[in-house]
Amino acid sequence: MDFTRIIEQKDKLQTPLFYYDLEILKATLDAASKEATKYGYHVHYALKANANHKILEIIKNAGFGADCVSGNEVLRAVEVGFKKEDIVFAGVGKTDKEINDALDADIFCFNIESIEELNVINELAVTKGKTARIALRINPNVNANTHHYITTGLDENKFGINLWELEHLLTVLGKCENIELTGIHFHIGSQINDLSAFKSLCLRVNTIQEWFINHNLIIPHINVGGGLGVDYYKPDENLIPDFETFFAIFKEHLDLRPHQQLHFELGRSLVAQCGTLFTRVLYVKKGIKSNFMIVDAGMTELIRPALYQSYHKVENITPHEGTEKYDVVGPICESSDSFGKAVTMPTTKRGDLIAIRTTAAYGEVMASQYNLRDKAAVLYSDEL
Ligand SMILES: *Cc1c(COP(=O)(O)O)cnc(C)c1O
Predict the structure, then answer these.
(1) By three-state DSSP, how is residue 321 classified?
(2) Closest listed residue to residue 21, CA positions, set 314, 363, 357
(3) If you measure from the C-alpha of residue 21 to the centroid of ligand 1, how many angstroms do you get, rounded to a whole number?
(4) How far is the centre of ligand 1, averaged over its atoms, from the C-alpha of 7 (Å)?
């Protein structure tokens, strides 16, 4: 990533700072869109990764739909101008208010996660005299081989409907007059780099399709969720994820019936690399085993390392002679408030600007004001 203009202005920049490179965002969207369009696939952007207006605007203009996991995300998607027929709404715990808001917005589809939810949506739709289109989120029991906190497609996870419940579900569905079954939905996890997990998902979906066909049901829409990973270790070598291979796996292994449409919900892979969290060094402190580099960003700006033990590349972009090893830590009163252990970096001084890479997904959206911290500043590349 080219930080020339940031370096030129480094003394003026307020930190911590969420910086978004819109050229990288656009290049990523173009690449994903090109590969998905080859096969006529639909991609819905998962708003939960980053819901900033400016970013959503660009994603909407690039022709993507919206995947929401809360009522407020549905409202945000509508506000930004995503077409209602391109909005899907998932989540294990939709409240009545959220369901009503989504019914009012006439969204494309509710991805429902339990039989009880099905009944509630039906009742609320009856009250409004509307028909709710739904997709059944089925738990495919496929292991995504990712961190256990972001694995979602196993029997033991809270997400989706288990296969053994489907028979009963169809009976309930038969009694829900204001529900239209339009799809089946899957989402096996996030930050998936072992692409064979997606092949396993395809094979599983084929079997599940057979089950529906044996019950005389052809489902018009299949939604295989998101989860494509990004390279946190070598962001510059792999700024744009390998969408070509990703979509080709579904083309090769998923048996679509005539007129069936395939949908995806990508979050992280569309946005992660366009964001960098800039932070300034407050103090450099000698420890017993290593040096501590204490920076002005913490888990309040980027909680992923504390929450999932995830890695982000940390770089000192202020040029200096010599190198040393640092534990890069934030100011928050928690030992997990750390961005890296024994990271080799140029000899660092108070005031240096540090780049924490690949932070546009699940960064700013997860920020908190813990310790009564201020909200971090935000800067887009077109404002530099
Ligand atoms: C989080 C989520 C996504 C997006 O996941 P990414 O790993 O960011 O691509 C898609 N669908 C559902 C239902 C989700 O919960």
Answers:
(1) coil
(2) 357
(3) 22
(4) 34
Ligand 1 atom closest to the Cα of residue 150 is 7
CATH topology classification for 22-271: TIM Barrel (3.20.20)
CATH 3.20.20.10 in the chain, residue ranges: 22-271
Q: What are the pLDDT digits (tens) for 157-190?
A: 777 898 889 999 999 999 999 999 999 999 999 9
- Put simply, whether the predicted model's pTM sits higher than 0.70 gets the answer yes
pLDDT at 124: 98
CA of 30 to the centre of ligand 1 (A): 20
With b meaning 16 or more CB within 10 Å and e meaning fewer, what string describes 131-168?
A: ebbbbbbbbbbbebebeeebbbbbeebebbbebebbee
Nearest to 195 by CA among 233, 157, 249, 235: 249
- Please state which CATH number belongs to domain 4-17+273-383: 2.40.37.10
Percentage, residues of the chain above pLDDT 70: 97
